[in-house]
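Recap quiz, item 2
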Amino acid sequence: MAVNLVAPDPRGLLAVPGVELGWAQAGIRKPGRKDLLLVRIAAGSQVAAVFTKNRFCAAPVLVAREHLAAAGCAVRLLLVNTGCANAGTGPAGLAAARDSCAAAAALAGCAPGAVLPFSTGVIMEPLPVQRLVAGLPAAFAALAPGNWGEAAEAIMTTDTVPKAASCRITLDGQPVTVTGIAKGSGMIHPDMATMLGFVATDAPLARDTLQALVARVADRSFNCITVDGDTSTNDAFVLIATGQARIAPIAGAADPRLAALEEALAQVARQLAQAIVRDGEGATKFIEIRVEAARDAAEARAVADAIALSPLVKTAFFASDPNLGRILAAIGKAGVADLDADRVQLFLDDVAVARDGGRHPDYREEDGQRVMSAPEILVRVVLGRGAAGATLWTCDLSHEYVSINADYRS
Amino acid sequence: MAVNLVAPDPRGLLAVPGVELGWAQAGIRKPGRKDLLLVRIAAGSQVAAVFTKNRFCAAPVLVAREHLAAAGCAVRLLLVNTGCANAGTGPAGLAAARDSCAAAAALAGCAPGAVLPFSTGVIMEPLPVQRLVAGLPAAFAALAPGNWGEAAEAIMTTDTVPKAASCRITLDGQPVTVTGIAKGSGMIHPDMATMLGFVATDAPLARDTLQALVARVADRSFNCITVDGDTSTNDAFVLIATGQARIAPIAGAADPRLAALEEALAQVARQLAQAIVRDGEGATKFIEIRVEAARDAAEARAVADAIALSPLVKTAFFASDPNLGRILAAIGKAGVADLDADRVQLFLDDVAVARDGGRHPDYREEDGQRVMSAPEILVRVVLGRGAAGATLWTCDLSHEYVSINADYRS
């Protein structure tokens, strides 16, 4: 049950000139569901990506990183499968990822190094390369610029709602488009990017500008979410810039148009990232945690993490129970060694909950109850130490989360 | 439903000469349950303690720390209440803790500074001092050396089984006794000690020796457990040495009898710590996580923590589902930056699960299934980096955990 999240209207998803998408039902894990996605990228495009920092990162992550480093601007194809993460699969997994790329490259008429592979699904199970390869011709046949909605469906695993977003801005009097898709619902605590996110624009960007952008956009979107604190082995966030918009190339950090484009990219990425939380496994509440007046960003994030990851806080949200001392306990255990509890203030939406190390004199249980009962809740913590801050989006911990993850493979 | 844990037979709990225990039903939160405990300690005893590092630590923790620092060997009374943590209660909470000590001291005929207060229960609610004080005479009247079993009951909150352990060793041909009690079931991730643990011995020990002992014993017991990763605001582990055993004082680190005593203390403390995990909220499995061949103890502990705290690993244990790639993902996200996944080995009890970065060639799903179905499971991770290690005890994450914590205050 996703929180205030419906499937995007496919008519609202704008095609990005230079990008085509095709899907197939390859039967990777189960028959009869879309589980294979191809993204064909026009020649002359730039592609940049950030990947999981999990040390058990998946074979496709290793191969995609390698191809990206070698091919640079020559990436022509993204190859995505669900149903199997191809992680914890050793040398055989690496061979499977390379074989998949080679098969797709043969059909596309490009070098295997121009293909970036992505996988998501169960860890430590072998990738069924033959079934994947057998599904490729159908996916190629389906390639079209208007398939963003179906592409969003093709990368779902435990997601209950497909995730896609789009926006258009005007630069130099010309339209510039940004459209993206993402998947993810559990094992969400991105360390660099989310489970899988692909965002494309037709803006013309140099490669180093794009690489800097992808990291900054990830930090403002996918890196601000957590469902269960578990960083996936397969996280990847890819930014494609086809350069087919009718504007002069964006030169770099000094170009005044870059800020407007970055806002558009961040808006789409944030919408996708928040969609992942809204569709978090078992989620019934969408919670924004805003930590203010911290000494630096790292301690603000540590406090936000401690709140967002506390099972006791998350179950209280699920129960709509204003057992708000649990939030104080989470703040206190966040590892800020010299935190002065007496200077901390806690707010729930507009309700002042705590100050001077304890309950706010005006706080009334019924006010806390009112906020906790809402499907969207803002937790605001003022540390009273400085001017830095951090924002995190997360969800509650419900019976349904346990059910989903106790049954995931069956 | 506790995992392989039954209430201790009161006849097996050995009295410690110099320690008397008394309880009452003070109606702190709910009527008709034991919620007040007094521990009277004979003159000449030594008391040492370690407390939570949570920055929102409770008022009684602040007062107990202060009294301990000032009174030293003069501690004569422990005063414990359940039903209210007296944490996140600001200056009023501090006054309530001091008033409670003063009332108990007046009845005991000692200085208020000779009383150490301890509280456990809901955070950010005021301590009902009047009801607590009204319960004191009954608790004093009940003081007796044989009350360890009832004392264990008097400190329970969401615990389903009282926790107590006892052992007797012989030093210099004389019996020396160690007996302890503990409580805890949720909000368990001790950073210094557990929710509440009290262990007493009649061994004669100097104060500095005792203080060193309490930290070492905590590191071998309470600091090796986690239920939900939430460090409580009220954790305390207290070690009492009455010195009434008929042996010469144990001189310090050089005394050869110290090692035997430390083993006995660690054995009792470990039994109590493991009882907390066995009675972890909603627990259906007891899991030992042993990380070996780490470069240092800190990284071994980080890997053990990452596994023990992963909701995905914990729900897989609940489901008896050998979805063991989740353990690899947890190892990979533990923050060991230069971990070589290809050198990591994973065992479940006697079953080799992973090596060379992937599934062990001999691993069969039915073997994993067999181990996962047992109520007690050993997860052994060999990192292949050095000679350090860490052991952690934890439990699974079940529907019942969510139910308990969604309903806790109601």
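Chain A has a mean pLDDT of 90.
The first helix of chain A runs from residue 59 to 71.
End of item.
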